[in-house]
Amino acid sequence: MEYKNVTQTDREQAKRIVYSVIYGVGKERLSECLGTTPTAAIKFIEQFMQKYRVCDFTQTVVHECRSRVIRPLRQNMRLSRCCWLLQ
């Protein structure tokens, strides 16, 4: 589909699909958005995650957070009850 042919409805549906996949909506809900079966929705999710390397991005963000935020916090924390933040 060419950019000039994309409608507002197309954009809204694309947003719903992308946010559904990123935030981990279930196969049933996504199949409703796509108008397809739950089996096809699972296949779509897997292809989406591979194509856009969502897992790689997520792992990079988690690693950066741990190295930039959690380590400095660990050095400054004195209360043992706050240790759950470090897990």
UniProtKB/TrEMBL annotation:
For this protein, the record's Gene3D superfamilies field holds: 5' to 3' exonuclease, C-terminal subdomain
Q: Which GO terms describe its molecular function?
A: DNA binding; DNA-directed DNA polymerase activity
Q: Which InterPro entries match?
A: DNA-dir_DNA_pol_A_palm_dom, DNA/RNA_pol_sf, DNA_polymerase_A
Q: Tell me, which GO biological process terms does this entry list?
A: DNA-templated DNA replication; double-strand break repair
UniProt keywords (A-Z) are: DNA replication
Domain DNA-directed DNA polymerase family A palm, which positions? 3-68
**Where on the tree of life does the source sit, at the highest rank?**
Eukaryota
Classification via Pfam families:
DNA_pol_A
Q: Which SUPFAM superfamilies match?
A: DNA/RNA polymerases
Q: What is this protein called?
A: DNA-directed DNA polymerase family A palm domain-containing protein
> Which species is this UniProt entry from?
Pyxicephalus adspersus
